[in-house]
Design a protein that fits this description.
heterotrimer, A mainly alpha, B alpha/beta, C mainly alpha, B: alpha/beta, Peroxisomal Thiolase, Chain A, domain 1, 12-stranded mixed β-sheet, two-stranded parallel ribbon, globular, C: mainly alpha
Chain lengths: 150, 344, 116
């Protein structure tokens, strides 16, 4: 039985009455604190590489690499899913969350084999970030190229 | 337009020979064992992996363990089971199929999502009541980590679960139905009737909000059952829905009230609300086909045996969610079947 | 106070993402894609360097910084190799991140088992 538009609207109204409120203030505050902490730690890593004599432009790569490594490691230890459930986008948006999105499905799919499991599922969640990152940056670069050419 | 609880035909079957509920078995994971009902289960596993290599294999072990507990209690051997009706949440209901590989019993694999438990009970009662089978074993299992992986995201993925989301129960429950006569002076539980549910869809599309998707189906089946058997809800000591959770149960009560059937919250309990404590970080409550099975086979069955409950209506509720179809933008249909037990 | 500005910049980007998730129908996956794309576009407009100037790692560590790294690489490529750079620069700019993601991801996945 599929509810008609009237029933389904009435149900939505009822639903709005019982639906638990998303704790927006709590989520936003925690996202700020968790995301801020991860980024402040990133600054520490960045300064470490500057101290080794990297230029600011050169240090960006090692910084990303280190943060991704840490995210992968914490996911392996089984910690990052708790950080994510607690911190929401504060844990997902930093590049450590990108690493989590890569390791989590890869680790889970290991039992289906290193190629058909781990290999195919590694970018199950994080793949779209690469696809759209590359596509959009290509378009942006092309626009810049055309503007410069004419 | 059809209304809730008013299907065009009577959908309730009376089991005149009153198939007996001979025995129950229940096995749960550590989180469920730490919950309010923890003392009522036959076995609480100490870790979620059960020594297996994958969550799927762990789920299979749970199902087999629940069946074993049920048979041991009934003092029966696996060969005595004349039909096995089992289901779970995995693709191709693999848990049940592989568990049935270990038993020589003829096997029906069932899928009704989380409603599978009462679906199995209902069909098992039909087979026993019709005289086709002397014993029928009805069992379901689910595993939180296997279900997360199948329906949502890998377990280690750090997604924030919204307040509406529910926690799939890790566990399994098994019931043995049989054509045995009632023994005098012993608490005998029999299956009295069963109501086949319809698929109901009230346009809930959020795959995290399954309780709200299932509430109309639960209300529809409960109302249809009460209409068919011409009883008021007060007839039952307990109406146990499977896994609506806190939000879904309130919605179902409200929907039933909207059709003129007032049920008080004490009488209408929900497995998903009972099995976990609020402090266990499960958001809206438990879910999964083991939710209704464990709560019934562990908790409710013991209450009936100790004569604390005499008439119980079990309404396992299932959201027929497919991650694939859900991403294609369709709403989530749901189904619920009711089975009424009484103590004689 | 580079740590404080990094904290604030990164924290605010995460707050923006959290608001998108909680106030719209978009899933976290959609939001991550949105922020990578937004980072690339802002970088193309030349504004992302201003954010990095202020926030340091607070601007580079969130996924918007990944989008910026891709565009930055492409712009460098265009300067050095012309049109060829449009095709090679993006991956070059993000090479370290992508390679470490695959290698560390592979190692972690092989070495560890999911805890559930």
């Amino acid at each position: 039985m599929k509810a008609g538009p009237r029933e389904s609207r009435a149900y939505q109204r009822l639903h709005a009455k019982y639906r638990p409120q998303t704790p927006l203030l709590r989520n936003v505050t925690v996202a700020f604190l968790v995301g801020g902490t991860i980024c402040a730690f990133g600054q520490l890593v960045y300064d470490f590489y500057l101290g080794l004599g990297f230029t600011p432009a050169e240090a960006a790569g090692p910084l990303a690499g280190t943060m991704i490594f840490l995210g992968a490691f914490l996911t392996g230890l089984g910690v990052y899913d708790w950080i994510g459930d607690f911190g929401g986008m504060g844990a997902a948006l930093p590049i450590t969350g990108f690493a989590n999105a890569i390791v989590a499905p890869a680790m889970e799919s290991k039992r289906e084999g290193l190629v058909q499991g781990l290999g195919t599922k590694m970018f199950e969640v994080a793949g779209p970030v690469l696809v759209y990152g590359l596509t959009v940056s290509f378009v942006v670069g092309a626009v810049r190229y055309i503007i410069r050419a004419y | 337009m059809q209304t809730l609880g008013d299907p065009p035909t009577p959908n309730t079957l009376w089991f005149s020979s009153e198939p007996r509920l001979i025995s129950c078995g229940s096995v749960v994971g550590p989180k469920e064992g730490a919950g309010p009902l923890g003392d009522h289960f036959d076995h609480v596993c100490s870790d979620e992996r059960l020594g297996e290599r994958s969550w799927e294999q762990a789920e299979r072990r749970l199902l087999m363990a629940a069946i074993d507990h049920c048979l041991v209690r009934a003092k029966l051997k696996p060969e005595d089971v004349q039909v096995l009706l089992a289901g779970d949440l995995m693709d191709q209901i693999v848990t049940s199929g592989y568990a049935a590989r270990h038993h020589n019993a003829p096997f029906f694999g069932l899928y009704g999502a989380c409603s599978t438990f009462s679906e199995a009970l209902l069909l098992g009662s039909v087979l026993v009541d019709g005289g086709y089978r002397k014993t029928a074993l009805c069992a379901t299992a689910s595993h939180h980590n296997a279900a997360e992986r199948q329906f949502r995201a890998p377990t280690e993925f750090g997604a924030q679960r919204p307040p509406l989301s529910q926690w799939t129960v890790t566990g399994a429950g098994a019931c043995l139905l049989g054509a045995e006569p009632v023994v005098k002076d012993e608490p005998c539980i029999v299956v009295e009737s069963g109501t086949i549910g319809r698929v109901v869809d009230y346009d809930v599309a959020d795959p995290y909000d399954l309780g709200s998707a299932m509430a109309p189906a639960a209300a529809d089946t409960v109302l249809a059952h009460l209409r068919d058997v011409q009883r008021s809800p007060e007839y039952y000591d307990l109406i146990l829905t499977g896994d609506l959770g806190r939000v879904g149960r309130d919605l179902a009560l409200e929907l039933a009230g909207g059709q003129g059937v007032q049920v008080d919250g004490e009488r209408w309990q929900d497995g998903g609300v009972l099995i976990y404590d609020r402090s266990q970080n499960v958001r809206a409550g438990g879910s999964g086909c083991a939710c209704s099975a464990c709560v019934f086979c562990g908790y409710v069955w013991r209450l009936m045996r100790s004569r604390n409950l005499r008439r119980v209506l079990v309404v396992a509720t299932g959201a027929l969610l497919s991650p694939l179809i859900s991403k294609q933008g369709e709403s989530i249909p749901a189904v619920a079947h009711a089975v009424s037990f009484k103590l004689v | 106070m580079p740590y404080l500005t990094a904290f604030i910049t990164g924290g605010l980007l995460c707050v923006a993402a959290q608001l998108v998730v909680n106030l719209t129908q978009l899933t976290p996956a959609h939001t991550m894609v949105l922020f990578v794309s937004a980072g690339a576009v802002i970088s193309g407009l030349g504004w992302y360097d201003v954010l990095i100037e202020f926030g340091g790692a607070g601007a580079t560590v969130p996924l918007t910084g990944f989008g910026h790294a891709l565009v930055n690489g492409i712009l460098d490529g265009l300067n050095q190799k012309g049109l060829m750079g449009l095709f090679t620069g993006g991956i070059t700019g993000a090479a370290m991140g992508i390679t470490v993601a695959v290698i560390a991801g592979y190692a972690a996945a092989v070495l560890f088992d999911p805890k559930g």
